[in-house]
Amino acid sequence: MSLDAVLARIDTDLDQSTARLMELLRIQSISTDPAFDAEVARAAEWLAADLRRIGFDASVRPTTGHPMVVAHGADDGPHVLFYGHYDVQPVDPLNLWHRDPFDPAIEEQNGVKVIRARGASDDNGQLMTFVEACRAWKAVTGKLPARVTIFFEGEEESGSPSLVPFLEANAEELRAEVALICDTGLFSDGTPGIVTQLRGMLQEEITITGPSIDLHSGMFGGVAMNPIRVLSGILANLHDAQGTVQVPGFYDGIPELSEELRAQWEGLGFNVEGFLGPVGLSHPAGEADRTPLEMIWSRPTAEVNGIWGGYTGAGFKTVLPSQAHAKISFRLVAGQDPLRLRENFRDWVQAQLPPDCSADFIAHGASPASTMDISHPAFDVARTALSEEWPNEAAFIGSGGSIPVAGYFKEILGMDSILAGFGRDDDAIHSPNEKYDLSSFHHGIRSWARILHGLSG
Amino acid sequence: MSLDAVLARIDTDLDQSTARLMELLRIQSISTDPAFDAEVARAAEWLAADLRRIGFDASVRPTTGHPMVVAHGADDGPHVLFYGHYDVQPVDPLNLWHRDPFDPAIEEQNGVKVIRARGASDDNGQLMTFVEACRAWKAVTGKLPARVTIFFEGEEESGSPSLVPFLEANAEELRAEVALICDTGLFSDGTPGIVTQLRGMLQEEITITGPSIDLHSGMFGGVAMNPIRVLSGILANLHDAQGTVQVPGFYDGIPELSEELRAQWEGLGFNVEGFLGPVGLSHPAGEADRTPLEMIWSRPTAEVNGIWGGYTGAGFKTVLPSQAHAKISFRLVAGQDPLRLRENFRDWVQAQLPPDCSADFIAHGASPASTMDISHPAFDVARTALSEEWPNEAAFIGSGGSIPVAGYFKEILGMDSILAGFGRDDDAIHSPNEKYDLSSFHHGIRSWARILHGLSG
After folding, report:
1. Global ipTM
2. Cα A3 from Cα B93, distance rounded (Å)
3. Closest chain A residue to B228 measured between Cα atoms?
4. Average pLDDT over residues A82-89
5. How many other CB atoms are found less than 10 A from the CB of residue A296?
6. Distance in Å, alpha carbon of B219 to nearest chain A alpha carbon
7. Contact call for residues A29 and A152 (beta carbons, < 8 A)
8. What is the pTM of this model?
9. pLDDT tens string A151-177
10. Which residues on neighbouring strands pair with residue A319, listed in sequence order?
11. A142 and A43 share a domain?
């Protein structure tokens, strides 16, 4: 059977696959710093050349920012679009790295082999799992089991400014039955997950103004309303004692979790102590009647991400400030309309203002939650394939964060995304000493080989 | 009668008095910036030389910081110590000044003549009112009506680091029956005030720690306790809806205002609209059952002077921070023990912490309120003299702020202070375009001439 031969080929070719990944990891493709523009371009060229070697019709496509790489396979079968990003995060603070971030090496960490380099996990190691799976299929059978289009972005770590225009301008070329995205992690060691629901986001910045100028608290303290007092009161009202968000209408229209997903999630044996312990916590905050996994994956939240006002330097200054500020974000789930929530939030703040105080708002991001339609057969194919490769059964899981590209694929290209990845919580992405487990790379390649096989029917 | 002759001499000498003040104002005696150390020293020398010309035995006395100026008159009568400070605030933002801050000039502002310069009001213009009063007495009568010691500080605007050691080392030399301090303002246009009660201060900095590291709010939001939420809740509890401070024992031991002072204060016709209007407010906050003047002069307050935590830069970052911080100050009145209140406050904060959160405190300043013993006859002498000079009767008033030197005089030298000054609310001290009304300077000199006369019995 050809799948077995492909998997065997992946095993014997692992050293060469790793060597190719390391070649890519030597390129300093930091997208946010113009000093590295040429390196970003070099990474795109390297990928296009590598894909051509496998037989793809690959091209580097300019944008007003960093280029995209688009590659088409010539094979029959269901059409899938694979997405990854080849740009990486900056490396500072450089002194916390124990080796050059762009001089990759296999090292041992906690008894397992890891590939150490910036981008090893996020996202070059992950995107190469798919490329290597394609290479193995072509080497063994001369073709791919599906019609594959590959799409690599070079601006994911710098806000993806060219992504939407590029998708809009090339919608016909990029639209497939389903997208495959490799930029997430395993649910836990040995248990792969496919993320099928991503939370949305509403970001608001609020400024409370009391007196028109900063005042001396000896002269005015007590008599003049202090905007920090007002802001604190409003923020304190954001949750009740049970952790329920108090903005009117906040929970309207949110569906309860399906029994099927609830059972799957309960079966994951999520370890709250293991989740909170490493960050110094032991008691879940938030909605008292929800499990932590439910809170992160399927319930909306409100968090204050920043607060400032008055004197914040060393020592003391008895100022009664004119203004106080906060940045507040809401993670949203299906059923919540970000723009209606923005209005409700602002009205709720205004209603709490004492005389003489005003509130001004800055609208930052707003995006709805997205939930994949898992009725497309590719979802079950992927789940079965992952379950066969890994020790434990794969689960459809949620994600507390947002992966904007999945939302754009749905909105602009009308396709759902299968978000499967092999990163681990301790990969230190965006941090010094980033790594990718060699076993993640190896079984990641094998996972995609199995998924491609499954897609062929 | 000699007082009349002295007052007449002051009137005819006003131009020369103003010219001498301007000479002093040309010296850039900014004490907080070492670049101006030589200028600070030059101001001390200038003052000592001027006092010698009047007949004082004056000396510039080195400290580990900026020098003090001490000058003794050789006359008989009750011994008084006059205090002022010759150092000035920095001048930035310089671009907001409409002339060089150290090129003094008489200008017209709102129809009255003002002396424009850094230090014109705070405190060189004020301290020279006393020097000029002495000069006039000496010129007319050849002596002073009291035994006068003059004590000028050069570090008041930079925290007075040498003041306490200097007072302790020179207590015998500086101790007098009563101190005269000219570093305050008129109660209102035409109404002089003698400040007889000064509030104390307790300053606390609090840090709330939740998770041990900053977290991603997508991964942990809702489940991990956010320290900004905890801090906001605690700060929101600091006052109840009536503005009453909720720290246990906060109001214990505070005496009610005497009927005499209450009547005097009510007679001042304090204009709340006129006080709050210029800073954009119209509704007094604070204790609902107290008048604004009572709140500022004789009631304790709690104010948040600074708050910060999480991401406070441009744009947005969905961080769930490890820590949140606030600086909180309490203005204290007679009967309150700062150190006991510090303990009560910390206990009160600790009692509100949810699981997994801790609070750390930094103790900043703590000083009790001080109330002058106005039974010393000099207080009535000063009040009568001021009432004769100004259109309206002088009042014993309170001050919302703290004037630490008055506390040190009491603590170290065992003497009360008569705090009388002629500044106005719109003098812009510490700000660009500082000024001192020429009439404040003129009638200030005449006021001290009258007080010196009164002291002689």
Report:
1. 0.82
2. 74
3. A304
4. 96
5. 28
6. 5
7. no
8. 0.82
9. 999 999 888 999 999 999 999 999 999
10. A216
11. yes
